[in-house]
Amino acid sequence: MKKLLSILLALTVLLSLGASAFAGNDDTPDGRWLCSDIDGSVTDDTPAELKDDFHLYVNKDWFVNTPLPDGTLGYGTFEEMNDVLDERMLALIHDESLTGHDAELVHKLYRLASDWDYRDALGLEPAEKWMKAILSIDSLDALMSYLHSDENLTRSILFTSAVGADMLDPDVYTTLIVAPTLMLQDSAEYTERTEAGEQAYEKNRQISDYILRRLGLNEEEAAAAFDNAIAYETLLAAHIQPQSAQYSPDYLSSILNYYDRDQLAELAGDFPILDLLNVVGNTSAKRFMVHEPAFIAALQDIITEENVPLIRDWLLVNNMIETGKRLDRETYDEVKAIESRLMGISGTSDDESIAVNTVKELLEVPMNKLYIQAYCNEEQREAVLDMVNEIRNSYYDMLNANDWLSEETRAAAIEKLDNLRIRAIYPDELPDWSDLDFKGVEEGGSLLDAEMAIGRYILENNAAKADTAVDKDAWDLMILPTVTANAAYNAQDNSINIFAGFLGGVFYGEDRSYEQNLGGMGFFIGHEIGHAFDTNGAQYDKDGAYADWWTDEDKAVFLERAAKLAAWYDGFIPFEGCEYSGQQVQTEAIADMGSMKCLLAIAAQKDDFDYDAFFRQFASLFRTKATLPAIIGNTAVDIHPMRYMRTNATLAQFQEFDDFYGIQEGDGMYLAPEERVAVW
User: Fold this and answer.
1) How far is CA 188 from CA 154, 299, 578, 638, in A?
2) Antiparallel, parallel or unpaired: β 624-626 and 288-290
3) Buried-exposed string 363-377: b where 16+ CB fall within 10 A, e elsewhere
4) List of residues 6+ apart from 275 with CB closer than 8 A
5) Smallest Cα–Cα separation from 129: which of 250, 51, 244, 216?
């Protein structure tokens, strides 16, 4: 479900723009700024001048003195705050005085995750029964029998199905049908492998080989199974759009393909799509939105008797790769060791961190409920709402003062802002998960079985929403968990969601100055509002429906400005060999720059505003470091600009920054006014 919400992106055409806007630095591949996101790129000897690289200047001490924690790919301000949240959740987990069903579920799962003696005693048995069921598939009939049986623990149905708000009518839930996630992430990797694709291939190959051999396959059988799984995904990939298609201006309109039950069955031909939807509890849905009809139409020619060995091994490899972290100590440690070797990770996480992250991952809603009851209050929420309202008022001013919008489009934009839903810190009503249960240690359960039970519970509850009314005022903690250092905009109900995890760290503090909190949490509030007016959010109206509220002339100007921004980011080369995609990061960059513009407008209205505290706090938000392999993989999929860019590329757009610090032509932070790319 989260994948389906996050996949709705749209970008625009590219323009060319040279990299001459910056003074240049011989130590950086593109002559802009040092990519300080890469662990080890900053040392005591690295020059850090305010006027040349503000991000490095503010954060140099942190880069030099903060090592990557053991067992991690990367670390930064978000991870620092999540460590605080983890400590609080661990305290709740250990609090035996907490009672009720949510506490019982959390305590049971924590015991299953943390009792390594018990996990070692179970050994590989939880996965063995599953593997045997998959290996018994020897025909198309046997494959369909497996998919319909209780032995199909993940309820795999060879495509991805979920229920979400309809794009055209967001008041109703519609069943969404998309292609499954591929091991190499992007269908383009199956025709021309990139470094990121090679990295994903090798990680999955080594983990698959290790687990399958531990489960009894010999070296040749394990290798053949993985090869078959990749061969099957290659067949699928030929009918799946590459990731880059998601950033085209026509992407959203391309996925609006609606079918009733008879039409869907006709599209699928001999592939029994309606029968398989029953497997995931979607028994009576009347309307379906199919992202890629060509993929569904091709399944009848792919799911054949001839291809059964490929499909069987794909099920085997995918399922067994996912089991490694849920089995015994030996399996867990080796899987982590493989990841560490390939991703440049040093050391290992401690056992309590492993266990609390397992609980947080699998029991997100019960854990969020316990956290809200223990750590959240109305005073916090009111303080955040006050900040939201101040920033929203600045957006009104920005829209009213805009000189390239017509009055017609401006009125529609203001109406969208009028109807913005605001969710802050915690929901008024907490969800009820009293129907969920699984066996704990005392009942002879296993961590893997618990995960499967939780997954089925979520799947069935999601499927039951099909064709029912959407409660837009509800806060779904499954989709938008509040115990995380983050925030989110949801285009399909025109809402911003500010999570409790932002109440701390560099983001917000009751003892901090107004300027620091504005440059911290305030920036992210403005950023989320800005998503309502990026190239994705701007395709949805005030009610969250995919609808065009722009005049043709205004839209053309908007897309031209957005294309200039994307082209500018294309010029970045954060590490050697990287072809950076401005289209991929366009929406997030628009939101970053729109937020900064509104915050600076607020600052201009304040007497004795402390710009230095504000800008420094903003720069501190994005300090981070990660291994180069992790950055290579992340750059291929992350829709956010790299974090050093989020500081420097954003601030370089604004005269207020130049004026306060005396930035001039020739300085690394200088960008000539005519070359600035902020869309709003």
Assistant:
1) 27, 19, 17, 16
2) unpaired
3) bbbbbbbbbbeebbe
4) 144, 148
5) 216
Between CA 217 and CA 316 the distance in angstroms is 12
Q: Pairing state of beta strands 487-490 and 421-425?
A: unpaired
- Phi, psi for 161 (deg, rounded to 5): -130, 135
179: exposed, middle or buried (Cβ count in 10 Å: 0-12, 13-18, 19+): buried
- The answer to whether the beta carbons of residues 1 and 162 sit under 8 Å apart is yes
For the chain, what is the largest distance between any 2 Cα atoms, rounded to a whole number of angstroms?
Answer: 76
> How many Å apart are CA 631 and CA 35, to the nearest integer?
11
The helix-helix angle for 364-375 and 351-362 (nearest 10°) equals: 100
The token pair at 244 is: 């880059």
Q: How far apart are CA 641 and CA 581, in angstroms?
A: 9
Residue 569 and residue 642 in contact, taking contact as beta carbons nearer than 8 Å: no
Cα gap 88→20, rounded to integer Å: 48
CA atoms within 13 A on the CB side of 168: 10
Say which residues have a Cβ less than 8 Å from residue 358's Cβ, sequence separation at least 6. 109, 110, 113, 447
Bridge partner list, 421: 495
pLDDT at 452 over 50: yes
- For residue 163, report the phi and psi dihedrals to the nearest 5 degrees: -115, 130
Q: Which residues contact 244 (CB under 8 A, 6 or more apart)?
A: 188, 581, 583, 584
- CA–CA separation, 540 and 533 (whole Å): 9
Q: Could you report the per-residue pLDDT of 49-97, keeping only the tens digit for each? A: 999 999 999 999 999 999 999 999 999 999 999 999 999 999 999 999 9
Distance (Å) of CA 636 to CA 179, 405, 575, 577, 631: 19, 34, 13, 12, 9
Q: Cβ(68)–Cβ(39) under 8 Å?
A: yes
Distance of CA 432 to CAs 91, 205, 401, 461, 566, Å?
A: 22, 40, 46, 12, 44
Instruction: Report the Cα–Cα distance between both ends of the chain, in Å, rounded.
Output: 31
Strand partners, 487: 498
Using alpha carbons, select from 649, 645, 644, 669 the residue that is nearest to residue 659.
669
Q: What is the pLDDT of residues 512-547, one digit of tens each?
A: 999 999 999 999 999 999 999 999 999 999 999 999
Alpha carbon 296 to its chain's center: 25
- CA–chain centroid gap for 184, Å, is 17
- As a whole number of angstroms, the distance between CA 61 and CA 53 comes to 14
Q: Name the helix (H) or strand (E) containing 318.
A: helix 308-323
Distance CA 498, CA 479 (A): 13
In DSSP notation, 652-664 reads: TT-HHHHHHHT--
Cα 32 from Cα 572, distance rounded (Å):
8
Phi and psi of 258, rounded to 5°?
-105, 140
- By CB atoms closer than 10 A (0-12, 13-18, 19+), residue 407 is exposed
Contacts of 47 (CB under 8 A, 6+ apart): none
Please report the beta strands in 449-604, taking only residues with DSSP state E, as ranges in sequence order: 487-490, 495-499
**C-alpha distance from residue 336 to each of 349, 448, 450 (Å):** 10, 17, 21
Name the one residue in this structure whose structure tokens are 């063995």. Answer: 128
User: Could you tell me if 222 and 212 are in contact, meaning their C-beta atoms sit under 8 angstroms apart?
Assistant: yes
Please tell me the distance from the alpha carbon of residue 264 to that of residue 268, in angstroms, as a whole number.
Answer: 6
pLDDT in tens, 253-290: 999 999 999 999 999 999 999 999 999 999 989 999 99
